[in-house]
Amino acid sequence: MGDRQRKKELFNQLARVGKALGNGKRLELVDLLAQGERSVEHLAVVAGLGLSTASAHLQVLKQAGLVNTRKDGTRIFYTLAGLDVAGLYEQLRNVAVDRMAEAERARDDYLHGGRAPVPEAQEQELSREDLLARAADGAVTVLDVRPAEEFAAGHIPGAVSIPLEKLQQRLDELPPDQQVVAYCRGACCVLAYEAVELLHAHGRQARRLQDGMLEWRLAELPVTTGHAA
Predict the structure, then answer these.
(1) 203-223: per-residue pLDDT in tens?
(2) Out of 121, 170, 211, 224, which residue is the most buried by the measure of CB atoms under 10 Å away?
């Protein structure tokens, strides 16, 4: 039968992971850390948090064993404790969107700017398998529109780095007669959607990778590190 108290302790310990992830801002921090190592200061700015609040959230994640820390002088840097943590986050996100209509609506509302998704949006997507095949043939330009720090932490081999906020000013760096495939952080990242919309507005051929860097890593596909040339 087993010892009831020991069983209770086991499930209480398992619940610590669920409690650590049971906060929207902490999930956002996990989403950001899935892109690579970040300082507390950087995470606070990108997540729209005060420094002390960001630190408190990160400590909860650390106590649950979900993140690791590294000190560099007076600065503290965080990373996910492993690819399994990124996979857990992906599964949580997918279950929420698949099982809760509210989560699906919130995702669509965010990704489509409050507009209803149109059938043509799926035609603008490209799967990982198709991207690998077309990139190998030199048929597309792969565009990473995440911040430069995230590109440096890991990107699709051969990708061009142009952060979204600089894309309009740097359009001439993209071949005018070749299709561009843009990608960003993951399936719930809006940057690639906005990049494709901007490229279309300037008469460019553009599609969006179906998901993003999170899913690319989880699929154990090739990843290159380092800043853009």
Answers:
(1) 999 999 999 999 999 999 999
(2) 211
Distances (CA, A) of 136 to 97, 129, 165: 33, 11, 28
Of 21, 58, 184, 195, which one is the catalytic site residue?
Answer: 184
Instruction: Give the C-alpha separation, 49 to 53, whole Å.
Output: 6
Task: Give pTM, 2 decimals.
Answer: 0.91
Domain spanning 4-84, CATH architecture = Orthogonal Bundle (1.10)
Q: Which of 64, 10, 35, 69 is nearest to 214 (CA)?
A: 35
In order along the chain (229 residues), what is the average pLDDT of each group of 10 residues?
Answer: 88 96 98 96 96 98 98 94 98 97 96 66 80 90 96 95 97 94 96 96 96 96 87
- Please name the amino acid found at residue 29: L
Active site residue 189: no
Domain ranges of the chain: 4-84, 120-218
CATH of segment(s) 120-218: 3.40.250.10
